[in-house]
Amino acid sequence: MSTEVSADGRRGLAPWPPVAAALLYPWALRAFHGAAATEGLTLVAGAWLAVAFALPLSCLALALSRAGQRSVATRRLAFAGLAAPPLFVLTGVLAGLLHSPVKDVWPWSVLWIGLGLATALGKSAGTEREPRSWPRLRVAHGVAAVLILLFVAFHLFNHLTGLLGPDAHARLMKLGRVVYRSPFVEPVLVILFLSQVLGGLAMAWRWSARPLDVARAIQVGSGAYLAAFILTHMNSAFVSARMVHHIQTDWAWATGAPDGLLRDAWNIRLVPHYALGAFFVVAHLVCGLRQVLLAHGVRRELVNGLWGAGLAGAAALSAAITAGLCGLRL
Description:
There is one protein chain. The protein is mainly alpha-helical. It is 78% helix and 0% strand. The protein has one domain. The longest helix has 32 residues. Keywords: Membrane, Transmembrane, Transmembrane helix. InterPro entries: SQR/QFR_C/D.
């Protein structure tokens, strides 16, 4: 009897660490802004920004923890917590579009507490179901990814030129927009991205039905993050900027000019949003390539070495892009 009660208690507590990480995330950003506003960009401010990054990333560790391995619902909630940065940006943009008098942190808190209660009070699901392979969906997901990769590679390189200054970024973006903003290409890109979101979430839901190793957890978690990032970015660019406010989605828009990303209380949420977005888009591709190489019989030690190097490269690229967005110039 006591063993059953103890097990039920652990199940009831399991969802709350990722919920706590999501709830604390806005307050870590607020603490960074408070420290930066009063003392400048000191070590204290940097520590708070590090905490803001660590909170969603801790959810990936929670998905791999014993509690995450035991419970499908907890594991899925942890992957949702990993996507807190784009989801919090989406919450803020929607609040602005709706002219909500309530600060966005309060509906954010209600949402996550509700998710925690639903997970804690819901029925326990098994963890050992083999995910359906859905070969056609996986092939379609991969083919669409190859097509999208051309745009993503250009987009990341375009942002990387921000290290040379806004003018260099604008010149390259002007050339790229001749293609990706054309009346034919832009709708195709939108359809491809939305199909990736829908197909990717379906596969992530299936794969998260069983315990995952580190590589697969990063693949599923990065997919969840990118789904939230794509929907958030489309809402910000197409709906908020272009349809409602009629402003250009240029370097000034991306960097929150004139205040910038680091000095503004709202804009600071864009730093983890952008940085983890750049990292996870490369990490997701690297994880997918790892699965392809293993399926074709490439030696596991070599594949894992390439995978680790790819993740390190993703981190370096993300750091460089983020530094440019925050004002560093070469």
